[in-house]
Write a structure and sequence with these properties.
By secondary structure, the chain is mainly β. Helix content is 13%, strand content 40%. The chain is built from 1 helix and 5 strands, in the order E-H-E-E-E-E. A 5-stranded mixed sheet has the order 1-2-5-4-3. A hairpin with a 2-residue loop joins strand 3 and strand 4 (48-56). The longest helix has 9 residues, at 12-20. The radius of gyration is 12 Å and the shape is globular.
Length: 70
């Protein structure tokens, strides 16, 4: 799933949290979120764990994975 919300929106973390706890995300899902480099997202949201982050000027791409809890 790719999320490309408005960059100045600081509530992106709340949306990622809701998504992490929804039925839209299954085990081994990957969520890619683009956001402003002016604020950071958390390392964990619900069952989603950040596994990569890339910064390019004022843009950041944060990648999260929902780990398989076997």
């Amino acid at each position: 799933m790719i999320m490309d919300p408005p960059y100045p929106d600081t509530s992106i973390g709340d949306v990622v949290e809701q998504l992490a706890n929804s039925k839209l995300i299954n085990q081994d899902s990957i969520v890619v979120v683009t956001h402003s480099s002016r604020f950071s997202l958390k390392l964990n949201y619900g069952g989603l764990t950040q596994f990569k982050e890339r910064r390019h000027g004022d843009s950041t791409i944060s990648m999260y994975r929902k780990e398989n809890l076997v």
